[in-house]
């Protein structure tokens, strides 16, 4: 193709957001196991897709069976688990894509790491709030039962701590809302922050 010249500069995040008509953000759902994170994440994605938004859900169980299959549940491995997925989030954000994350991410230190990597201005922290007692009663996968029987070490809420966020952007109380109400709360909050406006 003699004589043709190409601009080798990468498309910027702003270019991609313009094409996608959205502002990329990372929605970070944190809470105890069985608090409702995955349900809200999947519902939020469906609602945003119906409104024309391009998203990607990252769920803790799926990530640990793939990209982080080499990690356990020690404090160091939990930290590395979140570090890796935060780096992946940062790549998606730079591509103009909205990410929705469902991770226990049990400590403020771990969530601060994710926020720092992804960028504070891009990070929406959502505390999916249900008491440990309620989550144990729900236990849809039987994980609490197995943890209490000693089959799963370092399980959050049993022999590993969970620290509630100090100042989350949004709190969704899944003890006192229906699934649909919880999803709608997330949609109403997030959509205002991803609506495209040109600069």
Structural commentary:
This protein is of the alpha/beta class. It has one domain: Rossmann fold (3-Layer(aba) Sandwich). The protein is 44% helix and 13% strand. Strands 2-3-1-4-5 form a five-stranded parallel β-sheet, sandwiched between helices. Helix 2 crosses helix 8 and helix 4 packs parallel to helix 5. The chain starts with 12 loop residues before the first helix and ends in a 5-residue tail after the last helix.
Labels describing this entry:
alpha/beta, Rossmann fold, 8 helices, globular
Can I get a quick summary?
With 199 residues, this protein is an alpha/beta fold. The protein has eight helices and five strands. The protein has a single domain, classed as Rossmann fold (3-Layer(aba) Sandwich).
Describe the SSE topology.
Elements: H1 13-20, E1 26-30, H2 37-50, E2 55-59, H3 60-65, H4 75-94, E3 98-102, H5 108-118, E4 123-129, H6 132-138, H7 143-148, E5 170-173, H8 179-194
Parallel strand pairs: 1-3, 1-4, 2-3, 4-5
Given the helix and strand composition, which structural class is it?
alpha/beta
Instruction: Look at the structure and name the CATH superfamily.
Output: P-loop containing nucleotide triphosphate hydrolases
Helix content: 40-55%
Enter the CATH topology name: Rossmann fold
Q: Count every helix, treating DSSP H or I runs of 4 or more residues as helices.
A: 8
Order of helices and strands: HEHEHHEHEHHEH
Shape category: globular
The total count of strands amounts to 5
CATH architecture: 3-Layer(aba) Sandwich
User: Could you give the order of strands across the largest sheet?
Assistant: 2-3-1-4-5
CATH level 1 class label: Alpha Beta
């Amino acid at each position: 193709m003699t004589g043709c010249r190409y601009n080798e500069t990468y498309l910027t995040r702003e270019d991609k957001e313009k094409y996608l008509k959205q502002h990329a953000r990372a929605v970070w759902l944190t809470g105890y196991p069985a608090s409702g994170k995955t349900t809200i994440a999947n519902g939020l994605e469906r609602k945003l897709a119906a409104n024309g938004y391009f998203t990607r859900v990252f769920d803790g169980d799926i990530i640990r069976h793939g990209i982080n299959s080499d990690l356990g549940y020690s404090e160091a491995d939990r930290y590395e688990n979140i570090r890796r997925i935060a780096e992946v989030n940062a790549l998606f954000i730079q591509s103009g894509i909205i990410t929705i994350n469902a991770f226990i991410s049990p400590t403020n230190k771990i969530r601060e790491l994710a926020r720092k990597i992804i960028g504070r201005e891009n990070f929406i922290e959502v505390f999916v709030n249900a008491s440990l007692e309620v989550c144990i009663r729900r236990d849809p996968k039987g994980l609490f039962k197995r943890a209490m029987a000693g089959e799963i070490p370092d399980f959050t809420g049993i022999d590993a701590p969970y620290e509630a966020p100090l100042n989350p952007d949004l709190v969704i109380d899944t003890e006192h809302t229906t699934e649909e109400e919880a999803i709608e709360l997330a949609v109403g909050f997030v959509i205002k922050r991803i609506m495209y406006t040109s600069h």
